[in-house]
Design brief:
This protein is mainly alpha-helical. It has a domain at about 30-60. It contains 3 helices and no strands. It has helices at about 20, 30-45, 50-60. The chain is elongated.
């Protein structure tokens, strides 16, 4: 490999699929939930936002549904 590469004449191009990759949203989560994912992220070495995304993606792919029993 060369010690130096000259990229000054390259023409950059933006990723045309960037908007399809991830969508920023605002979501309100309990502090305990965030703390759980932050602790898990420090053990695994992955950002906690990625862990939350992976968990939600798994729920969506497997069509998991939350079963709630409301008190009468």
């Amino acid at each position: 490999m060369r010690d130096h590469y000259d990229f000054s004449e390259m023409k950059g191009q933006r990723n045309p699929y960037i908007k399809r990759l991830k969508q920023p949203i605002t979501i309100r989560l309990d502090k305990n939930t965030i703390d759980y994912f932050k602790t898990l992220s420090s053990q695994i070495g992955m950002p906690y936002q990625n862990l939350i995304n992976l968990y939600l993606r798994d729920c969506a792919l497997h069509h998991k549904k939350l079963h709630l029993n409301w008190a009468a």
